[in-house]
């Protein structure tokens, strides 16, 4: 019955924990059995040899990876999303994190004193640290976020660390997919690291390396990082990313600012750019790309306009190349190279006029089709622009509707407050009426002319006790309690008063700890009263 009651994610975590135990046994067997040197091992086997196991580690000791081991820059929106998820479910031990200990071949006895780089789960580390900074967290709630389960590696190289980080992002349940620009930035940083530039700012300040041997070594590193089998598959799969990663520094800076402006203006909900959007730059030269980026690099990027400009440049370049090819074919068709006969006399071989006219007709047809294609592309761009304008208008309508909803909700809240005030006023009026009626009745009741002294004492005592209770209630509402003072607190479930200690004062009342069972609560001042001390 307990297994059926578990959530699916918790069941997945149990499966993962069993799989991790099997992995640890496999790694122990491979370490004991295989004594082969590292040069003979493959890239994956070298990473597996440096894996040391799974350990619960304190979040406070986890640190940001070095610039050489960093896969991508952390995203604030993703960290906020993870922070909400962790607050909703604190015991998220199925969110596994990956840690690298640089400079050590094996784990020491006290692992917490080592430098722990989070090469996988850096967003989770930042989110958990933000939660732990919250001062309103109690000691019991703080314990839920202080430790996390981590897969520990020792002395990984930059290529191995990036490979493990990329695989962690693809496998992880709450991991954010790497967009195309983050991948390009990772490729560019590896290129500069291969050239000896290890700082983050080097990819924006230093000139792009162009040496052929260095580029060959860089592509070898990328084969290991991405897990691609050979160079041909790397070029086929990441051709466009490799092209953009080798941009010159001015073109790279323009591209980066263009993408930042695009993310800020159009895609506030999804802070991500897709490969389909950047593919409009494919087939253009670096100079033309730089000119286009400089023209369209504003705070509010019109992506449709930018794409239309890219398509125009592509169509112009294709038309120029097609005309050059047709001219060359005409020249070859009309006159061929001169051939000499064995007697030594020269003659020119010509083609018939019918073939030339046929070629002219085909060229005219091609030009007509090309014009139709360009007109269709322009119509498509216009339709797309109109569609996006309608989309923007619908979004504006949605925003207006949201503002109206907020105004209605505010008005409802104000009405609720007015009703509450009205109720309180009615209660005060009723109390005053009752008090006036009781006073009137007391004055109108006939009193004995010669009352006995015992009756006098009873009436005086009753009035004194009634006035004393009212004074005591007023005093208890106005009294302030000190930290550590022992008081009596009212528990609503039992409808009884229990002994408690005051910890600190809050805006809504006092933060109190019950002596009987150690339960901590925030109670209002009306539910607290001073403890009576016995008179000696």
UniProtKB/TrEMBL annotation:
Residues 1-18, 334-344, 463-478 have a biased composition (Basic and acidic residues). Residues 366-428 form a coiled coil. InterPro entries: Tudor (IPR002999). Residues 19-35 have a biased composition (Acidic residues). Residues 479-536 form the Tudor domain. This is Tudor domain-containing protein. Keywords: Coiled coil. The keyword Iron does not apply. Residues 1-41, 316-344, 456-478 are annotated as: Disordered.
């Amino acid at each position: 019955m307990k297994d059926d009651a578990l959530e699916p994610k918790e069941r997945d975590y149990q499966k993962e924990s069993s799989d991790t135990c099997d992995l640890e046994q496999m790694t122990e067997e491979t370490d004991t059995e295989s004594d082969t040197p590292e040069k003979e091992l493959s890239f994956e086997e070298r990473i597996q040899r440096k894996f040391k196991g799974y350990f619960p580690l304190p979040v406070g000791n986890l640190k940001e990876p070095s610039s050489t081991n960093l896969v991508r820059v952390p995203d604030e929106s993703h960290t906020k999303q993870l922070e909400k998820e962790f607050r909703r479910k604190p015991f998220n031990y199925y969110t596994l994190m990956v840690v690298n200990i640089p400079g050590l071949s094996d784990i020491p006895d006290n692992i917490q004193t080592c430098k722990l780089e989070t090469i996988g789960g850096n967003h989770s580390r930042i989110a958990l640290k933000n939660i732990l900074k919250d001062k309103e967290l109690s000691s019991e709630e703080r314990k839920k976020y202080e430790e996390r389960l981590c897969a520990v590696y020792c002395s990984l190289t930059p290529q191995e660390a990036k490979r493990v980080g990329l695989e962690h992002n693809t496998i992880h349940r709450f991991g954010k997919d790497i967009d195309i620009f983050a991948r390009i930035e990772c490729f560019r940083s590896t290129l500069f690291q291969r050239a000896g530039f290890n700082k983050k700012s080097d990819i924006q300040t230093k000139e792009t390396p162009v040496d052929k041997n260095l580029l060959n070594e860089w592509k070898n590193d990328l084969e290991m990082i991405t897990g691609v089998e050979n160079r041909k598959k790397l070029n086929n799969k990441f051709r466009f990313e490799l092209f953009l990663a080798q941009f010159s520094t001015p073109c790279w800076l323009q591209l980066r600012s263009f993408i930042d402006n695009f993310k800020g203006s159009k895609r506030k909900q999804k802070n991500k750019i897709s490969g389909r959007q950047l593919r409009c730059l494919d087939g253009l030269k670096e100079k033309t790309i730089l000119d286009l980026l400089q023209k369209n690099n504003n705070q509010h990027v019109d992506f449709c306009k930018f794409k239309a400009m890219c398509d125009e440049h592509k169509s112009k370049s294709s038309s120029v190349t097609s005309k050059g090819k047709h001219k060359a074919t005409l020249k070859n068709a009309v006159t061929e190279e001169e051939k000499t006969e064995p007697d030594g006399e020269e003659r020119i071989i010509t083609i018939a006029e019918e073939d030339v006219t046929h070629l002219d007709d085909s060229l005219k047809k091609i030009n007509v089709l090309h014009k139709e294609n360009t007109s269709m592309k322009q119509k498509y761009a216009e339709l797309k622009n109109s569609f996006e304008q309608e989309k923007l208008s619908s979004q504006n309508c949605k925003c207006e509707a949201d503002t109206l909803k907020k105004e209605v909700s505010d008005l409802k809240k104000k009405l609720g407050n007015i009703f509450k005030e009205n109720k309180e006023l009615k209660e005060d009026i009723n109390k005053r009426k009752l008090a006036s009626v009781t006073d009137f009745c007391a004055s109108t009741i006939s009193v004995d002319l010669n009352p006995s002294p015992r009756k006098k004492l009873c009436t005086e005592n009753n009035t004194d006790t009634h006035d004393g209770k009212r004074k005591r209630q007023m005093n208890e509402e106005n009294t302030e309690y000190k930290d550590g003072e022992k008081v009596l607190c009212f528990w609503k479930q039992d409808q009884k008063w229990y002994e408690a200690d005051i910890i600190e004062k809050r805006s809504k009342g006092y933060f109190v700890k019950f002596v009987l069972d150690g339960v901590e609560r925030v109670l209002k001042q009306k539910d607290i009263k001073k403890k009576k001390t016995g008179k000696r």
